[in-house]
Design brief:
By secondary structure, this protein is mainly alpha-helical. 55% of the residues lie in helices and 0% in strands. It has five helices and no strands.
Length: 88
């Protein structure tokens, strides 16, 4: 993230209004909610976890036990149970 000078980035009237509240301090202005990507969308992590969870559910439906799934996926038994319950 790059620092921007308010005099260059904002119209004078808006700068003057902001100066009523903050002067000389740094302020972070987040993106609008509708412009923000959800967690893992850009990196692909969300998709990978969804695929992994579908695979866990498939194995469970074919008779794999929770301890077997714990061993294969290196997750806690509680995590495996949550994944299975959520998708069943």
């Amino acid at each position: 993230m790059r620092y921007k000078n308010g005099r260059e980035a904002l119209p004078p009237s808006l700068l003057k209004e902001i100066q009523k509240y903050i002067q000389g301090d740094l302020i972070y202005i987040p993106k609008a909610t509708e412009e923000r990507a959800r967690w893992g969308e850009k990196s692909g992590a969300r998709k990978e976890l969804a695929q992994r969870n579908a695979e866990i559910t498939l194995h469970y439906s074919k008779g794999w036990t929770v301890p077997e799934l714990v061993q294969k996926y290196h997750l806690s038994s509680e995590s495996i149970r949550k994944i299975v319950v959520k998708t069943w």
